[in-house]
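User: I need a structural model of DUF4954 domain-containing protein from Fistulifera solaris for a docking pre-check later this week. Nothing fancy, just the predicted structure tokens so I can convert them on my end. Input:
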Amino acid sequence: MTHPDFLQSGKERTTRIAACQEWLALARSSSTNQSVSEQQSMRGLFPNEIDALQQQSCSCEDWNHVRLVTSAATINESHAISLSHAIKETRFAATVILVLGDEEDDSAEISTCILKKLPPGLHSNLLISNSIIDLRAKVYRNTSICNTYIGPFATIINCGTIDWSSNDHLGLMTITVGAERGGGRPITVHPEVDMPDVVQQMKASALHTTTHPSGMIHMNIVDKHALVRDTPTLQSIYLHPHASIQGATSISNAILLPQAKIASGSTVHNVMLQWNASIVDHSSVTDTLLMEEAQAGPHSLVVSTILGPDVHVSAGEVHASIVGPNTNAHHQSLLIGCLWPLGRGNVGYGANVGSNHTGRLPDQECTAGEGVFWGLSTAIKFPVDLSSAPYTLVAAGTTLSPQRVTMPFSLIVASGEGNDILPGWLLRSSPYTLARNEAKYATRRKAQRHWDYTGWKILRAETLSLCWHARQALLSPASSGSIYSETEIPGLGANRLSEKGRLAGVEAYTNCIQMFALRGLWRFLVDSGLRRNGTNLWELELASSIMPPELVNTSNVEWPPCPWETTVDDWTIQRFFLQTEFPLDDLISENEWLENHLRTLIQLEQDYAHRVYQSKRRDDQRGVQIVPGYKQAHDRAEDDAAIADVKAYAIQVEEAILRWLNDTTDCE
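Assistant: Understood. Predicted structure tokens for DUF4954 domain-containing protein:
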């Protein structure tokens, strides 16, 4: 469901543009008094008002082109005193509309105390032309302001040229991702787009075309409480209320939604920033959309890219990519042609995810699954597909040749004879990573307007379906041996798998599938209010045959479904797993079946909590043996919040199940 702020934002922008165009048309059509709204009227300046402005060192080629908007009740009164206080040492040209308002400043939010103390009005500006300016704004020491609307309580100070190019039509942008040459995937975006819309276009077989929507922008807008300062060149900008541009080098073709920011020596061309998005600290960003709470900088180079909500990139380069929610690239690294719509991953220092050049054209691309971790100094040679291998870790120093991997939660590591893959490694050997990530995504998810689709769980129908397909492949290799390749086990990519690794992968996926299934069973019992005695679960929910989880067919080269696209709920997949993992035996009753497998869930939860603890404790033990003072400088596994949460959940499940089995209290 689209957040109402998306619709409201676009509506406000369309309304503001239409009003500005209407006012300018009225100002150019006649010098007589004209009504511009129910409360306001427009007229030319009275002679004494012109005299008052000239006494303040103001000038104009033709004062007949300067128009004044006041309340309808005072339209015939002289405002010479107010104008002389508000406007000093400013030159006007062409059509200029000055707005006198009586509304008090309802915002205490101004960036610095110095700016807050400045009186409103126009002061020491070399030229203002073809513009609408509310005199409650603060407009100081600017070289040239043309074709611009400046709203009440906005601030523009110490800037060079602010102008509009007749060739610019802000409001719609096409960003080509994937192959940089010889193809590409054009994505048409507007300022209020979300990731589901981007993904829909990315997956479309035909090119997406969109005509220019109504409300296209044809003049600069610096709206209420917006701030622009210390920037030499600005062209074709739209700042929604409370957006800011501070100390940038050059800005052109930019739309900033509320609280968005461009600052500190950044150079920006053809960008859209949603709420609280920012480009900072000497970054260069071109042809890019930053969704809510996304940040580029410091020292980022971003070109032809869509940064999803809560994405942070800094110090490195990103080209022709889609980077999904909660992804971090905090170090010097490279992403080129990376289609990563579900994000939630990390890019390590020196990672080169960008070998898209075949020696002929840079026409290759990479697809990445949710939570993929590109380790230090990895080299990824395109094409590579990890879209069906979520939460896979490519270890430091590993080089991936072109390949497709469909083993989720895996570790790919360089070895003496190529790369080895350990399917399900995160589930078995590093579950702390997943527990910490689950907590991290919940606490770092700041983009409120994308909240409805970014909060999916790691273990859910789609990821468990991928685990099931991966286990099926591991269970039935084409031939037996000590070492397996893609030929024997589809989904391994260009990596080797040992027999020990195969068995470990089967165990990891099986434990995860069974825990997921039994969690669903327990949740069903709790939500249904069913009691142990008299419960006929098989007749209620498990008697009917359920097809295998075909959320994605990993044998085909296709995108797995995104969480917001899935029509199959967790319980449907969990029912299938219950039937296949824990079939009802004629030798036991349903009550015995329930008790046995609820106790199995207790064991699985305890085992999971223990492995989460152990995977962090291994780091503690190794650190103490290597680094002096390690114990005093690092939090212990015993004190880790993520570990404590997993342990508490295991205890809670055990206590609740035992109560249910004893039938003494309602399960909660």
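Before docking, keep this in mind: Residues 538 and 544 are 8 Å apart (CA to CA).
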